[in-house]
Design goal:
Rossmann fold, 8-stranded mixed beta sheet, 21% strand, alpha+beta
Length: 424
C-alpha cells in the first residue's frame, strides 16, 4: 500500500508555489513599510502554554489540538495558533520589558478539525503582534495596514471589516453571568452544541450559525451595555480614526472571537466569495495575556491571516499577476557536443545578469525537442549554442514571445543584451 499524506495535510506543489511566494512577499513588503520585524519560534510548545492562553474551555484546547507525551513525560502540543508562542518567546528573551515591539511571523499551525475548502488540519498563517502600546492608535494602524494589503492584492472590493469591543475581563465576567441567566431560560431552544457551550464558554454561542439559536439571541443581553467607559472611549476613538482614514467598517455586537485572551478591540475581515469559510483575517487586543503567561504586565494587540484562504481568494478573483509562477526568462539550448560550453556560458550569464532567471538545458536531445522545451518553459529568449557558435564564440538569440528575427551575438555581449531586454 502506498503511504499518502495525512487527511487535512496537503502538499504544496511547484505550480502552486508561485502564488504563495507572491502573497508572502507582498505581505512582508508591506509589514516592512510599517516597521514590523520578523520573529521565529518553535512549532512545538508545552501544552500548558495553550491551556493558559487560548483557554481550557475553548474548542481548540478541548477538541482540536495535536497533543502528545514525549520521551521525558512532558505534555507537548503542535501550535494551534501563533500569539501564545510569540508572547512566550518575547517574555523568555526579554523583549517586552520597558520596550515596544512590532513583530510578525509566518508558518504552519495545526488543529484536528473537519477538513474542508479553506480549512485544513495543517494550515498556514501570517501573524502580526504589537506590544507595549495601550492606545487605539496601534489598533487603527493594524487595520490600516491590512486595508492597504487588500488594496495592493486587488481584493479590497470583496472584503468587509467587522469590529467590536469586548471590554475588560471583569466586564465580560458580568456579561457572561447575564447571558447565562437569559439562555438558561431558553435551554430547550438551543442546539446541542450551544447547550454544551452554555456550561463551558457561553459567549461563543453568539457565534452560532444555527438560525434557531440566532432567533433566541435576538432578545439576549448585549455586550455593549456592559463594557466600561474606558473601553467605550477606546473603541469610539478607534472608529474615529477609521472614519477619518476612509476605512469602511461594520460594528458587529456578536463578534467575540474564539480565544479567551481577547479584550477591548476585536475584528475580522470577511468575504462572501469563499462560501462558509469567509474570515480571511482576524485579531484583537489582549492586554492581560503577557501577565497571564508569567511576564510583567504588557499590553498587546495583533491579528492572523489565513494563507490558504487568501490564496483561494486570489485565485477566485484572478488577482494573481500573469508574471507569478513564471520561473524562466532565458533558456539555453545546447546542440551537439557543446555541453561543457553551455554550462559555463549559463553560469557566466547568471553572474552578469543576477536578476534574470536562466535555465540551461540538460540531458541532450535534438534541436527541435529543446526548442519545444524552451517554448514550454515560458522563456522569452532561447540562446542557441551549437558547435559552430562555440567555434566563433557567439550564440544564436531566438525571441520566443515577440516578432523579431533571430540574430547571432558575440558571447561577451550577451550579458548587456539580456539586461537591456529585460529592463525595457
Amino acid at each position: 500500500m502506498k503511504i499518502q499524506s495525512l487527511r487535512g495535510m496537503h502538499d504544496l506543489l511547484p505550480d502552486q508555489s508561485g502564488t504563495w511566494q507572491y502573497l508572502e512577499k507582498t505581505v512582508a513588503d508591506i509589514l516592512a513599510r510599517y516597521s514590523y520585524r520578523e520573529i521565529r519560534f518553535p512549532i512545538v510548545e508545552q501544552t500548558e502554554l495553550f491551556k493558559r492562553s487560548v483557554g481550557e474551555a475553548t474548542d481548540i484546547v478541548e477538541k482540536e489540538m495535536y497533543t502528545f507525551e514525549d520521551r521525558n513525560g512532558d505534555q507537548l502540543s503542535l501550535r494551534p495558533e501563533g500569539t501564545a508562542g510569540c508572547v512566550r518567546a518575547c517574555t523568555q528573551n526579554g523583549l517586552l520589558h520597558n520596550q515596544t515591539q512590532r513583530l510578525w511571523y509566518a508558518g504552519p499551525m495545526f488543529r484536528h478539525e473537519r477538513p474542508q475548502k479553506g480549512r485544513q488540519r495543517q494550515f498556514h498563517q501570517i501573524g502580526v503582534e504589537a506590544f507595549g502600546l495601550t492606545g487605539p492608535d496601534i489598533d487603527a494602524e493594524l487595520l490600516l495596514l491590512t486595508a492597504r494589503l487588500w488594496k495592493t492584492l486587488k481584493i479590497d472590493h470583496v472584503v468587509t471589516l467587522q469590529i467590536n469591543s469586548l471590554g475588560t475581563s471583569e466586564d465580560r465576567k458580568i456579561y457572561r453571568a447575564a447571558l447565562v441567566e437569559y439562555l438558561t431560560k431558553h435551554h430547550d431552544e438551543l442546539d446541542e452544541d450551544s447547550q454544551r457551550r452554555l456550561q463551558t464558554n457561553p459567549m461563543r454561542i453568539l457565534d452560532s450559525k444555527n438560525p434557531d439559536v440566532q432567533k433566541v439571541l435576538q432578545q439576549a443581553p448585549s455586550l455593549s451595555d456592559f463594557i466600561d467607559d474606558e473601553s467605550r472611549q477606546h473603541f469610539d476613538a478607534l472608529c474615529d480614526v477609521l472614519t477619518a482614514s476612509n476605512i469602511s467598517y461594520e460594528i458587529n455586537p456578536k463578534l467575540v472571537r474564539g480565544l479567551d485572551y481577547y479584550s477591548k478591540t476585536v475584528f475580522e475581515w470577511v468575504t462572501s466569495s469563499l462560501g462558509a469559510q469567509g474570515t480571511i483575517c482576524a485579531g484583537g487586543r489582549y492586554d492581560g495575556l503577557v501577565e497571564q503567561l508569567g511576564g510583567k504586565p504588557c499590553p498587546g494587540v495583533g491579528f492572523a491571516m489565513g494563507m490558504e484562504r487568501l490564496v483561494l481568494l486570489l485565485d477566485e478573483l484572478n488577482a494573481v499577476p500573469d508574471s507569478v509562477g513564471q520561473t524562466v526568462d532565458v533558456y539555453i539550448v545546447a546542440v551537439g557536443d557543446t555541453m561543457k560550453e553551455s554550462v559555463v556560458l549559463s553560469d557566466t550569464l547568471r553572474s552578469e545578469c543576477p536578476n534574470i532567471r536562466i535555465e540551461s538545458h540538460c540531458g541532450g536531445g535534438s534541436f527541435k525537442s529543446q526548442i519545444k522545451k524552451a517554448d514550454k518553459s515560458g522563456a522569452a529568449i532561447a540562446l542557441i549554442l551549437g558547435e559552430e557558435e562555440v567555434a566563433s564564440a557567439t550564440a544564436g538569440v531566438k525571441y520566443l514571445r515577440r516578432e523579431q528575427p533571430q540574430e547571432t551575438v558575440v558571447q561577451g555581449n550577451l550579458g548587456n543584451l539580456l539586461n537591456t531586454f529585460f529592463t525595457d
